[in-house]
Amino acid sequence: MNFLTIMLQAEAQQGSQWSFWMMMILIFVVMWLFMIRPQQKKQKELENQRKQMKAGDKVVTAGGIHGKIEKVQDDTMTVEIAKGVSIKIDKSSVFAEVQPEKKAEKKEAVKEQKEEVKEA
Question: So where are the chain's domains?
Answer without folding.
Answer: 1-52, 54-100
